[in-house]
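Hi R.,

As promised on Friday, here is the backbone we talked about, encoded as structure tokens. Could you run it through your design pipeline when you get a chance and send me back a sequence?
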């Protein structure tokens, strides 16, 4: 291993940059008694927080309780790249793949959702380092041009302020020798600090009367006929209705985990860039960026001008959501190599933080709902990206489903169907490891990797060979 790789991790904290903050609030008390509530939300990530806030805004007299197994935002919510998008279904092409006949409605709902997202931040004065620089998809090499041109046609068809960029134009925005073109969607997109957003949403919900308990994992649930009894380590909760807002954390329910797999997505954050380093890469409009590689990378700047660079996937046996290996340098070497190839002028920069977070991979790569106990309990989850904003929409629809409210969104296909099954262990582990290896090496080596990835895609996973 080159010394530049190992030296880059000499001072690294293997912990999310977003959560390594003096602003991180003290946890709420653990639940240590028996209680009753009208609506119980299990999980205080984005889906749970948005569900709690929207439910209490809709009915200020409703008794709403949120329990979190650990602390607010410690799971996927405090770990993403947090590039904002209007997409509700994991990107334009994935939406079209799944729901072409309903794209007009989904796109309109996505724009309305982002406007509601922004209004909530403004109404509750949530300080979350939000920037509205847009989304930029960059073609890596000439082979990526076709991808962005195809996506551009979808963006324009559905009314987005999208612009194709030449190699010269894209490098004037973000200067990388790899970028051969770009697609810049300028409106209703940008970046945010996800942990500060989550903490702000919690404060907003608490101010309106929602009760939170942290370090209170759900152990089991029992149908009492007119209600559900949820057992936690030191008490029981009797709830009229329950929303499971647990996304990739599915070990509590085998039925959910048959359709959801916890894939790890890895991220690096550098030390703050110097003025000279910033000048070398440009990026004055501070867009959130995705590239077109088979094993794609995404990147953005933080408020204090660190470079966040992410995207190398991994899987650990039995949906492990806290792997020890990802707290060591080795899984991040290839990601740092990709950063150096993308921005050669940053080869000497140190990595301040490195971590992985759980993606809830399904054959849909977007939210779905599963119903239990005659509809008194539902699961809402399955994000594989864009969940910072899509979770608000998913929570709103989930509330309508559990409250038996007939809104137009509940009649759309995504709300009435579920993704396909994922094979159980050990086949899940073996298939995932082989697919991750193929993704890592397909662009350089091709061969058997291309037909393998095409086969996986035919199974329902939208991988691009």
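Update: got your reply. Pasting your designed sequence below so it's all in one thread:
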């Amino acid at each position: 291993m080159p010394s530049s790789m190992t030296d880059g991790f000499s001072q690294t904290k293997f912990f999310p940059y977003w959560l390594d903050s003096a602003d991180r609030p003290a946890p709420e008390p653990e639940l240590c008694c028996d209680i009753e509530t009208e609506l119980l939300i299990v999980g205080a990530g984005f889906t749970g927080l948005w569900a709690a806030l929207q439910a209490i805004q809709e009915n200020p007299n409703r008794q709403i309780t949120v329990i979190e197994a650990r602390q607010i935002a410690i799971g996927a919510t405090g770990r993403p790249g947090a590039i904002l998008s209007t997409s509700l279904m994991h990107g334009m092409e994935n939406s079209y793949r799944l729901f072409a006949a309903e794209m007009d409605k989904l796109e309109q709902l996505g724009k309305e959702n982002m406007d509601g997202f922004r209004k909530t931040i403004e109404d509750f004065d949530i300080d979350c380092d939000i920037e509205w620089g847009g989304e930029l998809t960059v073609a890596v090499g000439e082979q990526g041009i076709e991808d962005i041109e195809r996506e551009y046609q979808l963006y324009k068809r559905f009314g987005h302020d999208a612009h194709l960029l030449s190699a010269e134009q894209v490098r004037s925005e973000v200067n990388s020798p790899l970028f051969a073109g770009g697609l810049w969607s300028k409106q209703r997109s940008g970046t945010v600090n996800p942990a500060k957003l989550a903490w702000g949403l919690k404060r907003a919900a608490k101010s309106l009367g929602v009760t939170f308990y942290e370090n209170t994992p759900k152990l089991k649930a029992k149908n009492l006929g007119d209600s559900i009894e949820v057992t936690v380590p030191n008490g029981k909760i009797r709830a009229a209705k329950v929303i499971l807002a647990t996304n990739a954390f599915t070990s509590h329910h085998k039925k959910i985990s048959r359709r959801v797999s916890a894939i790890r997505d890895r991220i690096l954050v550098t030390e703050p860039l110097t003025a000279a380093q910033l000048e070398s890469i440009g990026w004055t409009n501070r867009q959130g960026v995705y590239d077109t590689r088979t094993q794609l990378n995404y990147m953005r700047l933080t408020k204090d001008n660190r470079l966040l660079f992410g995207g190398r996937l991994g899987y650990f046996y039995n949906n492990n959501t806290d792997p020890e290996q990802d707290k060591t340098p080795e899984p991040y070497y290839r990601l740092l190599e990709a950063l150096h190839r993308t921005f050669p002028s940053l080869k000497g920069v140190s990595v301040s933080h490195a971590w992985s977070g759980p993606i809830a991979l399904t054959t849909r790569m977007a939210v779905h709902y599963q119903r239990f106990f005659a509809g008194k309990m539902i699961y809402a989850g399955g994000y594989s990206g864009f969940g910072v904003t899509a979770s608000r929409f998913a929570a709103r629809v989930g509330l309508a489903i559990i409250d038996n409210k007939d809104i137009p969104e509940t009649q759309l296909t995504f709300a009435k169907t579920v993704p396909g099954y994922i094979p159980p262990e050990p086949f899940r582990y073996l298939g995932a490891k082989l697919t991750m290896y193929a993704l890592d090496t397909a662009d350089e080596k091709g061969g058997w990797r291309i037909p393998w990835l095409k086969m996986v895609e035919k199974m329902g996973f939208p991988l691009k060979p």
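One thing I noticed while checking it: The two ends are 28 Å apart (CA to CA).

Thanks again,
M.
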